[in-house]
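testing teh design pipeline on a random one, pls ignore if ur not involved
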């Protein structure tokens, strides 16, 4: 099995080969699958992320889910921890790591989130995940009171049969790809 650094580099190479159109089409397919789940239908508060260039695009779904009446929350990195805040398109700014993040002071409690959409560098079919290396999602999903169903979203090129994992790595409950 390859080491984490090599896998991250390979995924980055693979994603660079995807056109913007391919990424958009993949996002449409992936999020249609998420929206078809009973868990999504029953979720009042959904945690999503503001995608970077090498992640499944979320711009359209952030707005669509808000218009569907979902409470959409997005992460902000504060030091070595990640916290979630309500998504308001007019209250976003470039934050840690150059990621667009929410501004505001009203943190959403971990136990308020019903469904969390989780990005990663790579996934396995059984839900193991390899992140970017900061452990932000693993730390958040380990918080006392966290109870959300965790769905991973990824391009098909991010799938691996097996990944190196550590005891603190938290797998997702479901995985959606194109």
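output:
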């Amino acid at each position: 099995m390859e080491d984490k650094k090599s896998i991250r580099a390979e995924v980055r190479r693979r994603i660079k080969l995807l056109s913007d159109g391919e990424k958009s089409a993949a996002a449409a397919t992936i999020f249609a699958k998420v929206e078809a789940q009973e868990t999504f239908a029953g979720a009042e508060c959904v945690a999503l992320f503001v995608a970077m260039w090498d992640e499944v695009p979320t711009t359209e779904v952030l707005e669509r889910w808000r218009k569907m009446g979902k409470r959409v929350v997005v992460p902000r990195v504060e030091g070595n921890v990640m916290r979630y805040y309500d998504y308001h398109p007019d209250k976003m700014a470039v934050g840690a790591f150059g990621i667009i993040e929410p501004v505001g002071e009203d943190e959403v409690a971990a136990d308020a989130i019903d469904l969390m959409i989780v990005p990663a560098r790579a996934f396995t079919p059984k839900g193991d995940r390899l992140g970017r290396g900061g452990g932000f999602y693993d730390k958040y999903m380990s918080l006392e009171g966290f109870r959300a169903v965790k769905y991973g979203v990824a391009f098909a090129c991010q799938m691996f049969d097996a990944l190196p994992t550590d005891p603190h790595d938290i797998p997702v409950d479901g995985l959606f790809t194109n």
